[in-house]
Amino acid sequence: MFKRKKKDLTDEEIVKSIVDQKNHDDFGLLYDRYSEKVYHKCISFVKDLDLAQDLAHDVFLKTFLNLSRFNHQSKFSTWLYALTYNFCIDYIRKNSKVRFEEDDELVNIPQNEDDINEKELLQLRSERLAAVLELVPPGDKAILLMKYQDDMSISDIQAAMELAESAVKMRVARARAKALEVYRKTYNDE
Amino acid sequence: MNENPFKIIEPREQVPENMRKDVMGSVKLAVLVLRFVQLFVGDYSSVILEKFSRSSKNKKDKSEDQNS
C-alpha cells in the first residue's frame, strides 16, 4: 500500500506517532508547522526577542512533555495555542513589574453595550491598541488576541480555556470593556 | 472599512534559526532523562514487588511443597 509522506500527516497523526510509536524526531514536524505562531505569541507578551525565544523554547519543551495528555477533543493547534497563552500569562504574572488588577468576578455586560465596545475597540489606532494591551491584565489580553488576532471561535476558546460557553462570552465581553477602560484612562485628555 | 488593528500589531519577526536546534536538542535530552528515570523507577518497583508480593510468594511456597 502507498505510504504517505510524513509531511502529509495531520497534526493529530503526528502526535500519535510520537506518543504511541515513540517517533520522537517527528516532533520536528510540529515545530516546523508552529514555531512562527508560537514565537510571535511570545513576542506579543514579552517584546524582548531573546526572552521571547526562551519562552518559545520552553513552550515547545512543555508541549513535548505533555503530548500524552492531548486528548484529541480539540484541534492540536487550539491545544498548543492555549498552552502557549497560559505559559506566557504565568510568566507575566510572576515576572512583571506592573501589578495587574485581575478580578475573577464575571459581570454581565448588556449586549448593546458590548456591541458598541467591540466596534470601538476595532476602530482604535493600532499603536494605541498595542499600548493598551500592555496595560490590561494578561488573561484579558490573551482572550482578546485569541478572538481578534487568531480568529478563534467561541467554541475554540472554550476548548482552549476549558470553560463553559457562557463563561467565555462573559470573559470576552469583560476583556473588551477592560481594554476600553484602560484606553479612556490613558488617552482621556485627547 | 478599517483594517482590524489586532492584525496590524501582530509580530512579524523571523524565527531565529538556532531555535529549532535548541528545541530539538532539549527534546532529545528530555527523552534520555525520561528513559533513565523510567529505567530506575521500573527496576525499583519490580524489585520491590518481587520482594513484597504475596501472590508470587504463595506460588513459590506451593511449588516448593510439591517438590519436597
Task: Describe this structure in a few short sentences.
Chain A is 69% helix and 0% strand. The model of chain B has no long low-confidence stretch (mean pLDDT 79). At the A-B interface, helix 2, helix 3, helix 6 and helix 7 of A face helix 1 and helix 2 of B.
Assembly type: heterodimer
Distance between the termini of chain B: 95 Å
**CATH topology name of the largest domain in chain A:** Rna Polymerase Sigma Factor, Chain: A
Helical region count of chain B? 3
CATH evolutionary superfamily of the largest domain in chain A? RNA polymerase sigma factor, region 2, helix turn helix motif
Order of helices and strands of chain B: HHH
Shape of chain B: rod-shaped
Distance between the termini of chain A: 69 Å
Structural class of chain A: mainly alpha
Indicate how many domains the architecture of chain A comprises.
Answer: 2
Mean pLDDT reading of chain A? 90
Query: What are the secondary-structure elements of chain A, in order, as H or E?
Result: HHHHHHHHH
Mean pLDDT of chain B: 79
How would you portray this structure in words?
The complex is a heterodimer of chains A (190) and B (68). Chain A is built from 9 helices and no strands. The mean pLDDT of chain A is 90. The relative contact order of chain A is 0.11. Chain A is an all-alpha fold and 190 residues long. Chain A has 2 domains: 9-95, Rna Polymerase Sigma Factor, Chain: A, CATH 1.10.1740.10; 111-187, Arc Repressor Mutant, subunit A. Chain B is mainly α and 68 residues long. The model of chain B has no long low-confidence stretch (mean pLDDT 79). The chains are: A mainly alpha (190), B mainly alpha (68). Chains A and B meet through helix 2, helix 3, helix 6 and helix 7 of A and helix 1 and helix 2 of B.
